[in-house]
Amino acid sequence: MRNLRMSIGLLLIVVMFSVGCATNQYSFKVAYAPNRQYRIEMSTETKSEVEIAGKEEVLAELKNKGMQLPLRVDFTQQMTVLLQTQQPQPGGTFPFSLVYEKFDNIIKMNGMERNSSPGLDLAGLKISGTIQNGNVIQVEGIEGGNIDEKSKEILIQFAENLSKNVHYPEKPMKIGDKFTQEIPMTLPVPNLGPLNLRIVSIYELQKVVKNLAYFKVVQEFKMNSSDQKLNLELTGSGGGALVHDLAANISSEFNSNYEIFLTMNHEEIQVKMKANSVSKYKMASQK
What we know:
By secondary structure, this protein is mainly β. It has helices at residues 2-18, 56-64, 149-160; strands at residues 25-26, 37-54, 71-85, 93-109, 112-114, 120-121, 126-132, 136-143, 146-147, 173-174, 178-189, 193-209, 212-225, 233-245, 250-266, 269-286. The strands form three sheets. Strands 2, 3, 4, 5, 7, 8, 11, 12, 13, 14, 15 and 16 form a twelve-stranded antiparallel sheet that branches. A two-stranded antiparallel ribbon has the order 1-10. Strands 6-9 form a two-stranded antiparallel ribbon. The chain is globular.
């Protein structure tokens, strides 16, 4: 049961880590430049209520271990990541390093603080590789930190998707224009197996002020497990506000709020969860 609780915590990390009339027209792209630093700050606060049903002897065992139902889980995560790009090489590529400078992960269950997810100590972890054409990231190595192999796979996906989170249209946009993006992903979450995630996002350009473009974002996502015995399904909806820096070619800020629902059969128990999650993301560029 402890592994299940921690897996749900990690699942929320992955989803939130993975899931925001003028005539002037604006062109958008995400592209990193060589010899620059990009500092990323992220925070997530999730409050959830978990109902557990099953055989009487299983529920009695949980109560004997001190678990009170419904289980109220508060999850807080804060991290700072430094992306450092280096001198360009022949062929248009340049090396990069991605260092986790800070990683705080706190889980409270019915008001009592628990250990952060095991196998997910990222402080000091370093990812390295190359970037081609400013937006094609290829991970070549990962070192440091205290993580398992499945978590490494998730982190590699995160790094390689840094330039793919928003696919802007190739044609210029004007105020009021919208575009829709659909992203399918497969995530190897420990104890839960490969999970299939599908995110649908609608972006609406609301205004452009001093090289900063402001988008309204509406999102829906759905996740299920490839393991038929697990019978897991997670759905969510919400959105927020995205700010794109036209001069730096980066999404510099994204604030979001989501409602999340999960159902899962695990061995002899059935789990239902409802949660509210608030996330904040900032990226700043400097030489």
